[in-house]
Every structure is written in C-alpha cells, then in structure tokens.
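Lab notebook: predicted structure, single chain.

Context: the supervisor wants predicted structures on file for every construct in the current expression panel, including those that have not yet been purified. This is the next one on the list. No modifications to the sequence; it matches the entry in the shared construct table.
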Amino acid sequence: MIVNNFKKITIGEKGVILKYKSKEQQEIPFSEINKIYIKVKKTPVPFILLFVSVSLSAVLISLWIFGFKLILFSPLFLILVGLIKLINYKRYVLKIKLKSGKAIIQPIPLKLKYKTIDDITKIRKALF
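Prediction complete. Output recorded below exactly as produced.
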C-alpha cells in the first residue's frame, strides 16, 4: 500500500498521469489498473467515545469546582453539538489498485470530491 500526495490526476491517451508537488510525474497505464474507486471513511467509534468521555469528565470537574448554579446546560449543549459533528464527519479517499498488488491511496478534500468522481468515470470508460 502506497500513500501518495499527488497534486493532480490527469487522463492521458495510454493511462493515468499523477503529477506530484516535489517529484516528477508518474504514468500508470490503463492495463495496470485493476480497480479505481472512492472510499468514504467515517470517524472511528473509539474517537467518538474518547470525545464523549473527556467532555463529560470536563463538565463534571467544572461542576464540582464552580458549583451547580453557574454551569448547567451550556457544556452539555456543546458536547451534543460536538458529538453530532463527529458522527456526521466523513472524509474521502481515492484508491487505485494495480494488478501488481500495489495500491495508491490519496485523501480527497470535500470540495474536489465531485471533480474526482468525474475523473474516475472517465478512467472507467477508458478501461472498459
């Protein structure tokens, strides 16, 4: 498994061209590509549990130090908002699996997701 940080992916006549920031470009022929897809990764459950436990312990410590009257609902509301954000957070990863067994993995920002999907459909049309 290879994690790459290429700057741009373009489709050539014979294959996919990966342009890097610091290295020279790499061309992968269409005959070498086994699969190409986007995978959605959600926040792992242990991170959510860690967030909830740390937040609740901070609320309990602040209630113990400052008293019950000063802090009642605002920390619990912030925990709820943070928990909703953590559950709904998704990140996208472009995976190119080659026939040699190597996999090229590239994180994709949310704003480039639809452009990358268009590129993947063009590559799939060239493959099949």
